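User: Once you have settled down, look closely at the record that follows, taking as long as you need, and be ready to discuss the fold:
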Amino acid sequence: MSSNKSSVLAMRISLIASFVMLVLKMGAYLVTQSTAILGDAAESVVHLAAVTFAAYSMSLVGKPADADHRYGHGKVEFFSAGIEGMLIIVAAVFIIYESIQHWLHGVAPANVGNGVLLVVATIIINGGLGAYLIWQGRKAKSLILVSNGKHVLTDGWTSLGAIVGLGLVTFTGWAAWDPICGLLMAGNILVSGYGLVSRSVAGLMDVADPELEEQLNESMARETAARGVSFHALRHRDAGSIHWVDVHFLFRGDISLREAHLIATDIERAVHSSVQKQVVITSHLECEDDHDELHPNDDQVT
C-alpha cells in the first residue's frame, strides 16, 4: 500500500473512532453527571470537528500543483494543525468554566462504576489509535496525522484524569476532587493546543528548521568543495511533507553552461540523498568573476 493510501486509511479510521469515543463519553456523562467526564466529552466533540477538517486537509495535500498553487497544497497541513490547536484551547476553556461551576455549586457525580467502565473503553481505543496515527504520520512525513495522533493521546490523558477524579471522589467522599481533576486536565490540553498552534504559525511563517539547516549546510559544503564549487544564499521553506530549497552555486568564469549544469545537478542529487527530509532543490548558477558586480545584494539572503 502506498504512503498516501495508508495515510488516508489512517485518517478514516481516526474519524470513525472519534465518533465512537464521543458516543461512549456522552453516555458516561449522562450516567454520572461528572464534570470531569463532561470536559472529556467536550474535548471529544472538538476532536471530532478537528479530525473532520484534517480529513479534508488530507485530500488537499495529495493534490498535485496546479495553475493557482504552483508549490502544491502541502501548506494546508499547517492550517489543519493550527485549527486543531485552537479547538483544543477552546475545549480547555470550556472545561475550566464547567469545573469551576461544579465546584462552586458542590455538584457530585453519581453511578461512578458504570461511567468508569465506559471511559476505560475510550482510553484503550485512544492509546492504540494515537500510537498508530503518530507512527503512520512520521512514516509518511504527514504533520496532519502526527497532530491528529497527539490530539488522540491528549484525549486519552483527559479520560484518565476523569477516572482519577471519580476515584478520588469515591474513596474520599469529597465532591470537589471531580472539578479539580477537570481543571488539571484543562491545563494539560492547553499546553497541547498551544504546541500545535505554535507549530502551525512556524510553518506558515516559514520559520527555518534548525536541524534541516545544519544538514543542508554540511552537505552543501561537502559536495561543493569536492567539485571545486562554492555556494551561498541557501534558503529553505517547509511546505508540509516537502521542503523547498534555493541555493546559488559559484563557478569559475570559463566553465561551459553544460558542464556547470551537470555539476549543479550532481550536487543537488547528492545533497538530496544525504538529508533526512524530503527536499526539492532549485539552484542558481553564477560566475565568480562578475558575481559581486551583477548581484550586489546577494549577501542579504545568505
Summary: The CA atoms of residues 142 and 241 lie 6 Å apart. The first helix runs from residue 3 to 32. The longest strand covers residues 230-238.
